[in-house]
Design goal:
The chain is mostly helical. The chain has one domain. About 60% of the residues lie in helices and about 0% in strands. Helix 1 packs antiparallel against helix 2 (about 25-50) and helix 3 packs antiparallel against helix 4 (about 85-105). InterPro entries: Integrase_recombinase_N.
Length: about 150
C-alpha cells in the first residue's frame, strides 16, 4: 500500500531527522524507518476505516490512543509459524514509533510496553528469579553434573 502524501512526507522527513539527529547505526536507522513505515501504513488503514479519534500527528491524546491500538494489533499479529509476535519484537517496533514522534517534536507517546522480562518463577514454584539464581541446584541436578 502506498502512503498518502502527508504520511509519505512525514516518513521522508523522519528518515532525514533520524540520520542527522541520532548516532544510530545504518542498520538500526533502516529498521526504524521500516517499522515507522509499517506504523504509518497501519495509520492509513485506521484513517480509512474511521477508527481514529482525532489526528495522531497533531493531537497528543489521539497519538497515544493510536499507538495503543497499533500495539494491540502488533500483539495479536501472527507470524508465519502461527505464533504471536514476542514482547521484544513489539517493543522494538514501538521504539521506532517513539523515535518518530519524538524527532518530529510531538513528544513520545505515553503507552505501556509489553513486558519482555524472563522469569523462572511459575505458579507451582513461586520462587523469585534472584532467589532461584542464588540457590544451589537440587540433588538430582548435582548427581547429573557429577556423572
Amino acid at each position: 500500500m502506498d502512503l498518502p502524501e502527508d504520511l509519505a512526507a512525514e516518513l521522508a522527513a523522519f528518515g532525514d531527522r533520524l540520520a542527522s539527529a541520532t548516532d544510530l547505526g545504518a542498520a538500526t536507522r533502516d529498521k526504524y524507518r521500516r517499522n515507522t513505515a509499517a506504523f504509518l501504513t497501519w495509520l492509513t488503514d485506521a484513517r480509512e476505516a474511521g477508527a481514529l479519534d482525532g489526528d495522531p500527528l497533531t493531537d497528543p491524546a489521539a497519538r497515544d490512543w493510536a499507538v495503543r491500538d497499533c500495539r494491540r494489533t502488533l500483539k495479536n499479529t501472527r507470524t508465519a509459524r502461527g505464533t504471536h509476535l514476542g514482547a521484544a519484537t513489539v517493543n522494538n517496533r514501538l521504539a521506532a514509533v517513539d523515535a518518530f514522534f519524538a524527532l518530529r517534536g510531538s513528544g513520545r507517546p505515553t503507552t505501556a510496553r509489553p513486558s519482555a522480562r524472563m522469569c523462572c518463577a511459575t505458579p507451582s514454584a513461586p520462587t523469585s528469579c534472584a532467589a532461584a539464581a542464588n540457590s544451589p541446584p537440587n540433588r538430582s541436578t548435582w548427581s547429573w553434573w557429577r556423572s
